[in-house]
Amino acid sequence: MALGSLMTPVSAETTSVHYTPEPVVIDGKVTEQAWSKAQWHALDHHIVGDVPTPEDFSGRYKLLWDEDQMYLLLEVIDDVLRDSHPDPRVQYWDDDCVEIFVDEDASGGKHQFNHNAFAYHIALDGNVADIGDTENDNRGVILLNDHVDSAWQRAETKPYAMTWEVAFRLYPDTYTTASPGEPVVLSENKEVGFMLAYCDADEGDTREHFMGSHEIEPVNGDKNLGYIDASVFGRIKLVKSQ
Prior knowledge:
Largest sheet: 14 strands, mixed
CATH topology: Immunoglobulin-like
CATH architecture: Sandwich
Order of helices and strands: EHEEEEEEEHEEEEEE
Number of strands: 14
Mean pLDDT: 93
Strand content: 35-45%
Helix content: under 10%
Distance between the termini: 31 Å
Oligomer: single chain
Number of helices: 2
């Protein structure tokens, strides 16, 4: 159920995501045949900071699904990996991290202090942070490590390509930390709100770049809206035919 929004998506285009009959092993090795049948999508929309050169940061991704969860394959060129905030609840957005935005029922609307949608920040050490809800978490940062499995590997030679494999479960907007319930069972033709982003931190105490999968129309010059409003997400549709 959407919780009100003044925003509308820049693009109403829906992207098909194909089914995998075999679960993906989350090890960063990309050995599954199913990945070869999935389509690459660019991670090239600027959100925060300067637009990086391809050598500084560039990325692309693929998606798959089965009944239990969704799978993400992310390939990143990142010249510096940085994790300078050891507490996973403190300034997690200012370290290198993958951010998965997901709205299980594609309803859009506000979600910053509720679970109408999720903004999973996946750190290099595997911790998964998001902002908790008002009633149960007093709007504090919570760890949702049981929602997401991730693993990454990095090539030993230039351009040091980094490969992430991620599995994430989809929870309904009734989720709370006090009463989490179970993730939804995924099925063909289900539509989901989705956006992907990467925080690139090279030096200092803040990220230099924040690049995403979908164009966001700025509000008062600000495009960093995904963690607030699911209406800026793209939309994906789960399909079984290739």
